[in-house]
Hints:
This protein is an alpha/beta fold and 395 residues long. It folds into 2 domains: 12-188 and 374-394, Rossmann fold; 200-372, Rossmann fold (3-Layer(aba) Sandwich), CATH 3.40.50. It has helices at residues 31-43, 79-96, 106-114, 129-135, 141-157, 166-175, 200-204, 225-234, 255-264, 279-288, 304-310, 323-326, 341-353, 356-360, 362-372, 375-394; strands spanning 12-17, 47-52, 65-68, 100-103, 121-125, 160-163, 211-216, 244-249, 271-274, 291-294, 314-318, 333-336. Helix 3 crosses helix 5 (141-157). The mean pLDDT is 92.
Amino acid sequence: MKQLHAAEKPLRVAFVDYVLEPEKPGRSGLSDIVWDMAGELANQGHEAHVIASYHTTSYPDPRVVVHNFPTPPIGYRNILGHLWILRRAARIATELRPDIIHAPEYVSTAVFAALGVPAPLVLTVPGNVFHRIQHGHSYEWHYLEVLKWAARISARRCARVISVSQEMKRWWERTGSSPERTPWIPYGVNQHRFRQVPDARERLGIAQNSVLLLYVGRFAKEKGLFDLLEACSSIKNLLKPGGVQIVLVGKGPQADEMQRRIDAENLNQVVQIRPWIAQDELSTWYSAADALLLPSHSEAFSRTILEAMICGTLVIGSRITGTEDHIQDGVNGLLFPPGDTQALADILADVVRCPDRLRDMRMASLAYAHEHLTLDHIMRRIIHEVYMPIVCSNA
Length: 395
């Protein structure tokens, strides 16, 4: 644990965790972000609490104080259950009286604000409902209205809205958060979980002289995966089985249609769909890959960028929010206009013909990640740029 200077007072921060899988705290959804921040806060000498309705008493970090409470009988993954959980969490937070309450999503901060929880609210937010509306969404109407309400309340009432990309900063300012309350601070990447694996290819049985390109994420329309398949089809004569492997890791509504397209284009000896890879194994795949592919049309921010870069892996991505914040074309990655399948095909063709071009940029990718994106660096920024100014202004 870091020793604080005598003049520094340890902060008491409570994180709100509304998890995707309540039996696996810190392992899925936004829960890993909560536990990463809480654990690093403890590393830096501060007091971290997590308020949640978990279905286990086995927690990722014994230094973090957990305030666990039962899930309501009406269930977990529904609006009423969510609001019931947040009402109970708000009661615990009020009794706890922390210096800061920090949440990773904006329904929590909106409910806390509406219930009058007295502690300052900080939101680290991956997206914005109005951004999703502009780019297409699949929300049911009643949930959409809840998200609109929550975004507006959080934008006005949070002491800070930490935006993880420049584009999200603009959207949250449009939603009502003033520029001085909307810092741009990206997610930090946990170096215990993501790191370079020197013998990654040997572990996976991948030849050293083959080109491995990797996608990790949901198979959804906004991800631009059919652009990738079209680009691959247009340079099919260059994609020699055994010499090139393109592995698409994930799941989603377009999985079956993607497989049909792969079969129809006779790409199945080169392009492979795999189910989700356990988080503990992702570092090996990132380290083995020549590049991470991100052909998205729109996206708030993909954490796979950080995960890949800390493993020394180049990013080949579309020029969209989040990606452009960190990737400098030709220096630590390669960029192309979103939806431009010819530009993507040209990049892939160059990579196949001259893979050393990517491998020569690995050090730049790794150096950028270590300088700007490590969890300890990001958490120091949050402490000194967000928490401390709020606490000092309330003193």
